Known about the structure:
With 572 residues, the chain is α+β, with helices and mostly antiparallel strands. It has helices at 66-72, 76-79, 84-88, 92-106, 148-153, 158-161, 168-179, 193-198, 224-230, 244-251, 262-269, 274-280, 312-349, 401-419, 424-436, 523-539, 544-555, and strands at 39-41, 44-45, 51-55, 61-64, 111-116, 124-131, 139-145, 186-192, 209-219, 235-240, 255-257, 281-291, 294-304, 360-367, 377-383, 389-396, 444-452, 457-463, 469-471, 477-479, 497-501, 507-511, 563-570. Strands 10-9-8-13-12-11 form a 6-stranded antiparallel beta sheet. β3 and β4 (61-64) form a beta hairpin. The longest helix is centred in the middle third of the chain and has 38 residues, at 312-349. It starts with 38 loop residues before the first strand and ends with a strand.
Amino acid sequence: MAGERRPVPPRQRRPDPGGPELSGPELGDPKLGGPELGRTDPGLVDLASLATFTLDPQGRVASWSVIAARLFGPSAAAVSGRHVCDVLLTGPGQRELIRQALAQVEAGQVWTAILALAIADGGLVAVRCEPLARPARGALVIAQRASPQAGQGLLGDAVARIGTTLDLAQTAREAVDVAVPGFADAAAIFVPERLLAADELPSQRAAQETVVRRLVARLADRPAAVTDSLLRPDEVLVFGADSPCYRAMATVSPVLFRQVDGDIAERISRRPGGEEIISRYTSFLAVPLVARGAVVGCATFARADGGPAFGPADLALADQLTSRAAVCIDNARLYGRERRIALALQRGLLPGQPAVPDGMEVAHHYLPVGASVVGGDWHDIVPLPGGRAALMVGDAMGHGPEAAAVMVQLRTAAHVLADLDLPPEEILRRLDRMAAGMTAGSFATCICAVFDPSDGSCLIAKAGHLPPVLVLADGAAHVIDLPPGLPLGLGAEVFEATQISLPPGATLALYTDGLVESRTRSLDDGMGELRDCLVSVLASGSALSGACQAVTQALRQHGEDDITLVLARIRQ
């Protein structure tokens, strides 16, 4: 009885009557990271179920135990001298694993795995390869039928390996890398095209076909470039109602099949090497990808001729892999969708290319904080009658999408008001009234300047904004003193305009506080650096566009806030 069994001293343990004496670490040592072969109770090993055989350095069978014959089928006489791949009838994926095992053993290391081998009545086998003591060299192989729980452990690393990023293609690659070659000789991931393009889940019930996109495929013994030429990533395919993939997604259950769809097979066979690939695989499994209760795609697995066909025992393993893969793939898809929406909205918030009157030169540069495309800063140029132009720079409180939502409303309103040829102080008064009626906390600063090249004048008003800097042709720089005005949104509606003269060659700089202020630099220091940098860059003779970028790059600190700089000059 099981309760009467006693541990056998290690030196007396033998795997079976026909096998060699065990050498190396104790079986099932968890420190080696391999399966605990035969472990039924702490300290006990079921030696009667362990099959052993030895391989020479080239992988040929040197000895074959009685239990090996019982587990795998062939007798010792039938396998002696044959390569282990030919004996166990493994497919190309498992041939690659055996090559890895022999290389690891040759390096003096232990190799363990759980494989689907062609044993007498089918099933999973836990395998352990240990290096034989020199001078014999070669490997001692210890094998035992694995329980379903151990089989699931084959794909246990899916949790660690799938979903390391939110990139859809990378996540799909991670899924097939887990499956090949340990579970299958080939694998592919398909996602409905409508789900990717329109975020709509297709309905198989009413349709007679489904359009899918192949995200990735992997063949065990083919380089990625060769695989991609045969089974192209992002290739759009149509699966008819009789297709195994269609049926798997429609019924939300796995489908075993023996050959590829006729249309798909014909398409692949037209490509170099395609006919060979089609003919070599004889067992297939299609498994739906289900995430959050919805079918988001299908995974297909294939095993080559000569290897064990997929059977009911493989469905649990496939389910474990696809369950993890489906959630991670859907997470990546949702993230990609949200990112595309955000980028589209942000790009839509950016101003178009402004029309600059012939009598002026204007350059502008904008740097959003962090990874945003747009934030709370804005600038605009509005051509006015008589060759004049209104230049505006604003800064909504905060940054990111909330500030951008406020910014776009104020920028649009400011453009419309300026286009009405209203004076700067009136533009700010109406913007202030508008901002006060918006959602709570919709505050912003703004400066508005109307340039008149005909007389070299500029009329300026500001609402809580930093004052402009005027750089003269002789290199002198001045901060223009303007009536302060309260920020927009406070309902003050009291703003004053000041008229200044722009001598020939003078440049006026309008900017936001992100350019001159940060936690590591005071406003006074920042303003001093701005004046010095403007004088230095403009004195070098740089064009305004180059000067604008050079000043911005020189003064940016740690990306704490959005940065906007506009330089304007009346042509001589």
